[in-house]
């Protein structure tokens, strides 16, 4: 009633469709660089930390229990001593952090120091601003 028929029909040109998709693409790019990529990097560092756990390491479980790894049972389980004479079996994937690492044996690679340094990062904002590097 109050809108003219020419305005109501629209332009029908191809430029409008590209300009409407541009903000969505820009939002996806921002989400990728601010959320998805750092999360993937953190997950990769956590997997590397878990694969490098060995006897003598002081660990924190997902439930917050502190202990020392006494035996690597298999690829999925560890025996952790939480007090004198009290040992529990913990799934390797449920370790939250490795607080202190033992010195690598002569046959091990020197890659363990890098994962311990990466686990001490300054959070998402610190890593984005370059605070996690020395």
Shape: elongated
Helix content: 40-55%
Radius of gyration: 25 Å
The secondary-structure element order is HHEEEEEHH
Q: Could you give the distance between the termini?
A: 67 Å
> Could you name the ranges where pLDDT drops below 50 across 5 or more consecutive residues?
108-120
Beta content comes to: 15-25%
Strand element count: 5
- Determine the CATH topology of the domain at 11-102: SH3 type barrels
Largest sheet: 5 strands, antiparallel
What's the pLDDT, averaged over the residues?
A: 78
Query: How many H/I helical runs?
Result: 4
What is the top-level CATH class of the domain at 11-102? Mainly Beta
CATH architecture of the domain at 11-102: Roll
Provide a quick synopsis of the model.
This protein has a domain at 11-102: SH3 type barrels. Helix content is 42%, strand content 22%. The protein has helices at residues 5-9, 15-51, 112-119, 123-128, and strands spanning 58-61, 66-72, 77-83, 86-91, 95-100.
Features:
134 residues, alpha+beta, SH3 type barrels, 5 strands
Overall description:
By secondary structure, the protein is an alpha+beta fold. The protein has a domain at 11-102: SH3 type barrels (Roll), CATH 2.30.30. 42% of the residues lie in helices and 22% in strands. It is built from 4 helices and 5 strands. The chain has a 5-stranded antiparallel sheet with strand order 4-3-2-1-5, covered by helices on one side. Helix 2 packs across helix 3. It is elongated, with a radius of gyration of 25 Å.
């Amino acid at each position: 009633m109050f809108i003219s028929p020419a305005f109501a029909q629209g332009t029908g040109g191809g430029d409008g469709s590209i300009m409407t998709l541009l903000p969505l693409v820009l939002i996806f790019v921002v989400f990728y660089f601010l959320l998805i990529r750092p999360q993937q990097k953190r997950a990769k560092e956590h997997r590397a930390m878990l694969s490098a756990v060995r006897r003598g390491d002081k660990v924190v479980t997902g439930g917050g229990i502190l202990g020392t790894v006494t035996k690597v049972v298999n690829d999925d389980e560890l025996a952790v001593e939480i007090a004198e004479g009290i040992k529990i079996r913990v799934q390797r994937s449920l370790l939250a952090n490795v607080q202190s690492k033992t010195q690598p044996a002569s046959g091990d690679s020197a890659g363990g120091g890098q994962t311990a340094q990466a686990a001490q990062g300054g959070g998402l904002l610190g890593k984005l601003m370059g605070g996690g590097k020395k």
